[in-house]
Amino acid sequence: MKDKFKELGELLRRKDWDGVFRRPTENIVIQFVRNPLAGIAAFAVDYLLLYTLTEIGLHYLIAAAIAFITGTTVNYYLCRTLVFNAYIPRFKNMPEYLFFIIIGVIGLGLTELFMYLFTDAIGLHYLVSKIISGTLVSLWNFFARRLFIFNQYGE
């Protein structure tokens, strides 16, 4: 693992931003650095859709589910093209998007649980609850996707 941090450090010292943010890599540390870019964009879609749907009258838990699925789809595209862009697809008969969605559905369950706990049980505003739950679920999403989907590298 030390060599993975060393590679990132070398890229940063050289100010090789293409290597840090775009060039295909199997380095989990660099992928972890890139992941927030995809996550922030997907979270923005999720958050804005949650707000919009709730404000037009949908119950916040229904709105959260719709927003989460939409954000997950945006995240899938960004993970394939930005975060895990060096992996070799291993699923021939079943699309990896299905596995991505399964991990996302587990994340959705966690999101709904955290939203309920923080909003109804603790009394936080639903948008504050979303920030907290989004942070916790993003950790689950990164490590589950890296372990179960985007884990084939090399020839």
Protein traits:
155 residues; mainly alpha; 6 helices; 0% strand; elongated
Low-confidence parts: none
Biggest sheet record:
none
| Gyration radius, rounded | 17 Å
The proportion of strand residues reads under 5%
What is the terminal separation in angstroms? 21 Å
Q: Shape, please?
A: elongated
What is the element layout, followed by pairings?
Elements: H1 2-13, H2 17-21, H3 28-55, H4 60-83, H5 96-121, H6 126-148
Helix pairs in contact: 3-4, 3-6, 4-5, 5-6
What does this structure look like?
With 155 residues, this protein is an all-alpha fold. It has one domain (35-148). Helix content is 76%, strand content 0%. Helix 3 (28-55) packs antiparallel against helix 4, helix 4 (60-83) packs across helix 5 and helix 5 (96-121) runs antiparallel to helix 6 (126-148). The longest helix is centred in the first third of the chain and has 28 residues, at 28-55. The mean pLDDT is 90.
Brief rundown of the structure:
The chain is an all-alpha fold.
